[in-house]
Amino acid sequence: MSQQATIKRYLLVLEKVKRGFYPSRQDLIDYLNDQGLKCSTRTFQRILESIRNEFGVEIKYNSHKQGYYIDQELSDDFEPFIRLLEMSQSANTIIETLSEGKDAMQFIHFDSSSLMQGIHYLKPLLRAIRDSLQIKIQYSYFYKEEERSFILNPEFLKEYMNRWYVVGHVDYTEGERVYALDRIKSVELLSDTFTKKLGAVGNYFDDIIGVNFSGEEVKKVVLSFSPHQGNYIRTLPLHHSQEIIVDNKDEFRISIRVKPNFELKQRIQMYGDQVKVIEPELF
């Protein structure tokens, strides 16, 4: 089984189970076969075991519903796992398209090649995070116009707006440090280990938009969008806590519960006169 086919099997099974209709084993096997991915009962069982053992996502059988479901309480890494599978599948699609020849390039436009800078550091950084290894990085700051080398204890990788960041702590300072991979000039894995301090990655980013930690408490933010802009906010929520308060021909109003930070203000400003901040007053 090729790696590409394996990823596609995982993604299709998770997408079908995620819909919440409790598909049976035979439903899922038939679904994979209909997609051109051969699947037997034994293969299906291996898929479930791999998703559970390798990625920590629990797909369980409900005897009352006679079908499968995702146990969200036991699957803390479900959303990041789905995101990685989707990214991998998208990359495979691009690779398949490019293999058709240079003529395919006339139909593809990339937003910016600069966003690809630094992604080759993902593999060594992930190893350092997994094994709790300190790293020595050389970093170029925007605001200082200089490069600096220092030791970082890396704990998370974070993707936001198509840019990757490494989040960690430095022994001689308090709190977290966030560094964009496209500003990193070099990474050296060291033999020294460290003790993680920042907790679970999911909990750490749950209450913010982006990567900057403002130190503020979680607040209720109420935003009123034009009906037209509301169509986009409805399908692409600003935050997982988003709740719709008003949805009519005059406005699309939502609330989110976040720690206000630079990225939130930046996102709001992007909408210009299509949005109005209702709450908090001094935001």
The description of the largest β-sheet is: 5 strands, antiparallel
Helix proportion of residues, in percent? 25-40%
**Name of the CATH class of the largest domain:** Mainly Beta
- The number of strands is 11
Gross CATH architecture of the largest domain: Roll
For the biggest β-sheet, the strand order reads 6-5-4-3-7
H/E series, N to C? HHHEEHHEEEEEHEHEEHE
Structural class: alpha+beta
Taking the alpha carbons of the first and last residues, their distance comes to 53 Å
Could you tell me the radius of gyration in angstroms?
22 Å
Shape descriptor:
globular
Return residue spans where pLDDT drops below 50 for at least 5 consecutive residues: none
Count of the separate structural domains:
3
CATH topology of the largest domain: SH3 type barrels
Provide the residue-averaged pLDDT: 86
Report on the architecture of this protein.
By secondary structure, the chain is α+β, with helices and mostly antiparallel strands. The chain has three domains: 3-82, Orthogonal Bundle (Arc Repressor Mutant, subunit A), CATH 1.10.10.10; 114-205, SH3 type barrels, CATH 2.30.30; 219-279, 2-Layer Sandwich (Alpha-Beta Plaits), CATH 3.30.70. Helices cover 34% and strands 27% of the residues. It has helices at residues 3-18, 25-34, 41-55, 78-98, 122-131, 201-205, 227-235, 262-270; strands at 59-62, 67-70, 133-140, 147-160, 163-169, 177-180, 184-193, 219-225, 243-247, 252-258, 275-279. The strands form three sheets. A five-stranded antiparallel sheet has the order 6-5-4-3-7, covered by helices on one side. Strands 9-10-8-11 form a four-stranded antiparallel sheet, with helices on one face. A two-stranded antiparallel ribbon has the order 1-2. A hairpin with a 6-residue loop joins strand 3 and strand 4. Helix 1 (3-18) packs across helix 4 (78-98). The longest helix has 21 residues, at 78-98. The radius of gyration is 22 Å and the shape is globular. Keywords: DNA-binding. GO terms for molecular function: DNA binding. Pfam families: WCX, WYL.
